Amino acid sequence: MTKKVLLLFPRTGFDPIKPRMPSPLIYIGTFLKEKGYEPIIVDTRVDKDYKRKIISHINDSIAVGITTMTGMQILFALNLARFVRKAAPKIPIIWGGVHPSLLPEQTIQNKYVDVIVRGEGEETFYHLIKAIDDKTALEKVKGITFKDKEGNVINTPNREFIDLNKLPFPNWELIDYKKYRIFDILSARGCPHRCGFCYNIQFNCQNWRPKSAKRVLKEIEYVVRKYNVKQLNFIDDNFFTDKKRVEEICRGIIKKGFKIKWRASCRVDYINRYGSKFLNLLNKAGLVELFIGAESGSQRMLNLIKKDITIKQTINTVKKCKDNNIQAQYSYMIGFPGETEKDLMKTFKQIDLIKRIDPHAMINMIAIYTPYPGTEMYEQCKNLGFKPPRTLEEWGEYTYTFANLPYLGSKRIVYESISYISRFIFYKKELKEKFITPLTRIPFEILSVMAKLRWEFKFFSFPIEWAVLKCYLVYRRKRQLKEIYKKLK
User: Fold this and answer.
1) C-alpha 120: how far from its chain's center?
2) How far apart are CA 73 and CA 298, in angstroms?
3) Which residues lie across from 43 on neighbouring strands?
4) Which residues, in sequence order, are bridge partners of residue 147?
5) Cα gap 475→417, rounded to integer Å
6) How many other C-beta atoms are found inside a 10 Å radius of the C-beta of residue 271?
7) 70, 205, 215, 268: least buried by Cβ within 10 Å?
8) Within 10 Å of residue 269's Cβ, how many Cβ atoms?
9) SS3 18
10) In terms of residue numbers, what domain contains 9?
11) pTM (2 decimals)?
């Protein structure tokens, strides 16, 4: 009897040649393999012949699992589901990931969705596959959403959170690791903080659950010894929550003599509490980059979004990172409910100050705030006239590239132009590498000069050149969507 389970990772619409590892599917696949099943991971971002691979396995598979986040990845997921349904009409199609977990009752209405795995997938997906394999009632499987024979939506009780230390080691042999830009390590899940824009409050219930330092070091040792890994990326939402654990991990890396470089996310209030001794330890252990959410240069906005940090902490963080030779990358958002022009200018001034203090500091562009389901600010935006998408297809057209915020009114194009300008200033090298061709080189250089002038004088009104760029991007996006929908018919 077959034990195969197909696990599909859709494209996202913004995929580099070497993307991040499909970590959710690696963890689910590992758990299934430990239980005697044969997981087949198909990552459509790196496997150009993915359709042939799906066809070769689908007829002797128990089910197909698809993961997706909010945004264009949903449309690619729908395309995959349609392809699967056409190739094997009776095989169950299971959806998981952040978006289906946050909006299960809406997601299950789509004809290409048979069952939804809510939240963490390892145990739930295994028990669901076992129920399908054994032909037992789905109602007994915790953490899923499905429709019964009468078409009623059934939400089974939530599954308890997993003890990450009890999970088997990730089986990286399930993928071709050479196709990915860096090795991803998960050392913890969740975050204890209350940021109003973050999905974590609903998805992880504001819980932070770590693997022990000993377990993390074992995983690092495994990938270093087996794959000769030189660079690691900790994909935790919040790696530094427990300072003592981080110290143990760093000391272990040094003691074992691992010559690795690693990256992780951190908060400015954490760094403010750290002394030079701890920061030097991070350096010695191989830390090369910190990803830091500064979010805004306005204290009023930081309070409104419940970031629980201060402007002073952000500037102190910049100084500490510079003094301790730590490369830091700061991210910002604009377009929050209640944000004024004065708040905007404070953000711009803070960015300029950061670059003056530390010219090597990186600004990861200025993103436009996008309301995501399951967040506190999502409900605020609805009260201000924001109309959420009502179908999976509509959510698939949802993007942070354009402002989905009706309360911005006529200022929407100005906010979008600021976001574009920030990319040309702070992300120019990456843009050049990813998108520039001989035909677009001259327009790119012209826009770069215009962006530099606008940023220098903080003049963002009448953004004619960026309105033209938006028209081009909208046109290109419509063509892309047309192709996707053509395949969905």
Assistant:
1) 15
2) 33
3) 9
4) 153
5) 17
6) 24
7) 205
8) 16
9) coil
10) 4-155
11) 0.92
- pLDDT, one tens digit per residue, over 108-141 is 999 999 999 999 999 999 999 999 999 999 999 9
- Residue 380 covered by a domain: no
Same domain, yes or no, for 322 and 206?
yes
Same domain, 414 and 363: no
Task: State the CATH number of the domain containing residue 90.
Answer: 3.40.50.2300
Please identify, among 155, 171, 197, the residue that sits at the C-terminal boundary of a domain.
155
Tokens 């004065």 correspond to 342
Whole-angstrom CA distances from 173 to 9, 26, 56, 119, 318 are 16, 9, 19, 25, 39
Sheet containing 183-185: order of strands: 183-185, 231-234, 261-266, 287-295, 327-334, 362-368
- Give the C-alpha separation, 211 to 221, whole Å: 15
CATH code: domain of residue 207: 3.20.20.70
Spatial distance between the Cα atoms of 157 and 336, rounded to a whole number of angstroms: 34
β-bridge pairing 61-67 and 4-9: parallel
User: Same domain, yes or no, for 472 and 405?
Assistant: yes
Phi and psi at residue 33, in whole multiples of 5°?
-65, -40
Instruction: Note whether residue 284 is domain-resident.
Output: yes
The total of structural domains in the chain comes to 3
What confidence tens digit (pLDDT) does each residue in 157-196 have? 999 999 999 999 999 999 999 999 899 999 999 999 999 9
